[in-house]
Amino acid sequence: MRALSSLLFVGLLAGSVAPASAQATAQTDSLAIRKIYDEALLRGQSYDNLRYLCQKIGGRLAGSPQAALAVEWGKLTMEKAGCFDKVYLQECLVPHWVRGAKEKGQIIGNKGKSISVAVCALGNSVSTPNNKPLRAGVVEVKSLAELKALPDAAVKGKFIFFNRPFNDALIEPGAAYGAAGDQRRSGPAEAGRRGAVGALVRSLTAAHDNYPHTGTTSYGDTPTKVPGAALSTLAADQLSQLLAADPALQFELEMSCQMLPDEKSYNVIGEVRGSKYPEQVITVGGHLDSWDLAQGAHDDGTGVVQSMEALRLLKAAGLRPERTVRAVLFMNEENGTRGGEKYADQAQQNHETHLAAIESDGGGFTPAALPWKPRRRYSARWRPGSRCCGPTWPMSCCPAIRAPILSR
Ligand SMILES: [Zn+2]
Q1: How many angstroms separate the alpha carbon of residue 300 from the centre of ligand 1?
Q2: Active-site positions?
Q3: Distance 287 CA to ligand 1 centre (A)
Q4: Distances (CA, A) of 107 to 93, 137, 203, 247, 312
Q5: Rounded distance between C-alpha atoms, residue 243 and residue 239, angstroms
Q6: Which of 35, 149, 160, 308 could form a disulfide with 191 if both were Cys (CB 3.0 to 4.6 A apart)?
């Protein structure tokens, strides 16, 4: 499967490449495609690049020193690739959230017996008050609607425990992720609005294990921010079972995360100028930042390395695109999308015509097909003022570009 994802990106860009001549034949096409395959399969650089990004730099949340290293690495790697006419940084301000000390969670029984469980702070969460342990009773719900239906007296002063699991009947994990995601994104905000002291959210994963999954939460305009933590799926099952047996049990949470002032960071952009229509731009990209608790290989190291590799493969095969093609390593997809917004703002200010903007962010698994199916939500491409980037291929689940950049 080596480099197959990069090959798919190259396939997407192929429409921008001029035929060798007006007499280009099917045979010359197939030879050119063979060259691309040979380069990817025999001399592909994606895995080496991915290894460095994940193992030498590691988790790289926006604003962190590791994210700054990733920017340096991305620029240097593109320059070394020797396939870009121009490699440059695009400055943006990003949120700088830090996790603090390792989070602690305990289930406290009515006889004072405590059981430690695996928890982690949700990205952008506030700490527990004064970074001290916060102890309260627990109310389990399966949805935001269920919370809404509860009387105030049942909610005030409690932890709201959002425990709707993944729907394992959905064959596409991304769909299950989307269906369960509102608990994490909005659960802490809604809990705070109702007078709860905090939110505990079942990890958004189909895996039954003891690794809590972080991920972003948003307080919106809620005036009362309460801490939000993820429980591992096993911890969530355990809490649910114990709660059924003892509804008066308590939970104790301790977190010291905080949001620091915005930090300067960058999108990293490599550009090959179009030979015939340089004013028309096609963008392929991935997001350079990742969460801090993992190496961010699938999310989204693979999108990063295959975007760079796609353009290198074109050059190695002796193909020059007719349209300008950019590989963009977006900063801050995970907890802000500031890099994507900056890219979109600049594109609009410069009156650029983007024919397509494609982000791969669904993991680096073996691609099985390339159906072109813009999602309605993201297919705002031809409607000025609407959000996001236009056609996203099904491997892409959460585009870094959430702003209109396409101009026709
Ligand atoms: Zn992602």
Answers
A1: 5
A2: 333
A3: 7
A4: 39, 10, 17, 12, 53
A5: 6
A6: 160
Q: What is the pLDDT of residues 174-202, one digit of tens each?
A: 889 999 999 999 999 999 999 999 999 99
CA dist., res. 406 & res. 384, Å (int): 8
For residue 90, the one-letter residue type is: Q
- Are the C-beta atoms of residues 193 and 150 closer than 8 Å to each other? no
**What number of other Cβ atoms are within 10 A of residue 75's Cβ?**
18
pLDDT at 398: 38
Tally of CA atoms within 13 A in the half-sphere of 139 that contains its CB = 25
Say how far apart CA 145 and CA 402 lie, in whole Å: 27
Give residue 95's identity as a one-letter amino acid code: P
Phi and psi at 238, nearest 5°, equal: -65, -45
Between the CA of residue 54 and those of 94, 205, 285, 394, what are the distances in Å?
21, 21, 17, 24
Global pTM reads 0.87
List the structure tokens of 105: 């969670």
Q: Which domains does the chain have, with CATH numbers?
A: 4-95+261-359 (3.40.630.10), 100-256 (3.50.30.30)
Between the CA of 360 and the centroid of ligand 1 the distance, in Å, is: 8
Token pair listed for 317: 């095969």
